[in-house]
Amino acid sequence: GLGMPIHSITDGVIVEVGRDLFGLGNFVEVSHENGFKSKYAHMGKIYVKAGEKVTSSNILGEVGLTGHTSGPHTHLEITRSGRNIDPQTILPEITHMPASRGEPKLAQLKK
What we know:
Shape: globular
Structural class: mainly beta
Order of helices and strands: EEEEEEEEE
Number of helices: 0
Helix content: under 10%
Number of strands: 9
């Protein structure tokens, strides 16, 4: 919900912090090992700066309503070598969520 903390999916370095006036609103992009990047958007507040190292325990910012959005949520994009990846194919399953599927695959980011 609105104001909830947003964490990086895994260790990385902040490569961009910005504001997309048309779609994503306030966003943070993190570079990870092996060509992976993750982008978090529609953020209400941002607590990091470009160049900072982060882990999954660091708070990048808060869920917000910036950009084009119909309600508070975190827009997550994952790419590898510039190609979009469906986050559900590599993130761990959330067993209590009715739409979750697959097995935990976050380890792929470290390969």
